[in-house]
Design goal:
mainly alpha, 2 domains
Amino acid sequence: MRPGRGSPTSGSRISLRQLQTHESKTERKRETRRKIIIGAIVRAAQTSQTDISLRWLEEKIQALTRPDDRALFGLDGEPSADPAEAGKAEPAPPITSRQKKLLAKLVEEHRELAREFGVDPDEPELEKLDKAKATSLIGAMLERVNTQAPPDER
């Protein structure tokens, strides 16, 4: 593919399909990284013969130190030294312009679906969404749109 043609980052108009594809690829990469992190935590626990519980796993996730990894689980900032403070994270990063464009297009084309997900199509207030919520909303809406579309349009 030639530079600037069909690329979601080019200055040309971005199609809904290109935005969906880009967002889908990005989310798959995030999900793969989440699985790697959880797998590594569980594998380390098995090696040391530690009992694994959901609460224990949540504590380990709260203790992640890499900002990128923490963001994958909706956490921001550094892990707290105080376990009671571990669940209190800084505000999530704001929605990206790409997410905003995709959500705006989804809300415009699927008004009823947007209402089902709690977004007012007449006043979407997309700026108020944080990155994690926007990603989740995009994924849920795209999944619903794809399951409702006839097979030849998917």
